[in-house]
């Protein structure tokens, strides 16, 4: 059988799956890899190798000396760069392609639930990209809160480091996210905790001054605790610095 080159659309969908897949599940027995490979008319081994190529380009994988492919090909590098340059657009494009391949009209279902009007397309894109962001952030942290280790998916949030409404350019970038349980998500959002440059929990003085035993037990007890760092898409320091300087209540 003649070798068939990978198209841009195929690689975009493959990168989407890389974002959604916990590092330890990048293998040809993963049902999601098998399903997408079938839709692409590729073998699970070929698709899992593409995901491993993307992993080899991931700075977090390199930093933690995790095992990936030896190197990513030129086309994979181009796709990585394209996503990095415009997460919002590429996330939506890849979600649309993925939905069509798998026979799931994700955007269509969402749009049918929304009223007619000129803002409808914008609302669809926002909801689709929010779903992508959540899937990517939870996958990066293996579905566990990066502070407590809690693994109940229905109690986990993909927390934006710089709020969604503040930084439109980076709101879909998984490096602008943390996987937090609902309580610590709210504490982070309210500036009661932040994350230091060396990736430890930093506690606001407001928590200590609250004289609330429950808050002391549930939040203050994690002061100085190191984050469970992700297998890929480690939070970007420039996003964390913004949170420390603009949201964290340090007085």
Q: What Rg do the Cα atoms give?
A: 19 Å
Proportion of helical residues: 40-55%
**Helix and strand element order:** HHHHHHHHEEHEEHHH
How many domains, in number, for the residues?
2
The fraction of residues in strands falls at: 5-15%
Identify the overall geometry: elongated
Total of DSSP H or I helical runs spanning 4+ residues: 12
Helical/strand content category: mainly alpha
Q: What can be said about the biggest beta sheet?
A: 2 strands, antiparallel
Are there runs of 5+ residues with pLDDT below 50, and where?
109-114
Neighbour order of strands in the largest sheet = 1-2
Q: What's the overall average pLDDT, rounded?
A: 89
Number of strands: 4
In whole angstroms, the N-to-C terminal distance is 67 Å
């Amino acid at each position: 059988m003649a070798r068939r080159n990978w198209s841009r659309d195929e690689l975009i969908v493959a990168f989407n799956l890389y974002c959604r897949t916990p590092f330890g599940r990048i293998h040809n027995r993963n049902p999601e890899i098998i399903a997408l490979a079938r839709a692409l008319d590729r073998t699970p081994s070929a698709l899992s190798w593409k995901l491993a190529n993307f992993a080899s380009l991931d700075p977090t994988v390199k930093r933690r000396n995790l095992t990936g492919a030896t190197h990513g090909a030129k086309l994979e590098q181009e796709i990585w760069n394209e996503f990095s340059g415009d997460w919002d657009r590429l996330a939506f494009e890849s979600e649309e392609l993925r939905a069509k391949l798998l026979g799931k009209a994700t955007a269509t279902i969402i749009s049918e639930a929304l009223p007619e009007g000129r803002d409808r397309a914008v609302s669809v894109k926002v909801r689709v990209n929010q779903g992508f962001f959540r899937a990517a952030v939870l996958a990066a942290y293996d579905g566990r809160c990066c502070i407590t280790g809690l693994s109940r998916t229905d109690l986990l949030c993909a927390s934006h480091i710089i709020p969604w409404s503040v930084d439109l350019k980076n709101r879909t970038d998984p490096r602008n996210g943390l996987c937090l349980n609902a309580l610590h998500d709210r504490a982070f959002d309210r500036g009661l905790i932040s994350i230091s440059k060396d990736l430890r929990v930093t506690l606001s003085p407001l928590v200590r001054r609250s004289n609330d035993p429950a808050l002391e037990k549930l939040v203050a007890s994690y002061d100085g605790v190191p984050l469970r760092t992700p297998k890929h898409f480690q939070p970007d320091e420039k996003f964390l610095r913004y949170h420390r300087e603009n949201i964290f209540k340090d007085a």
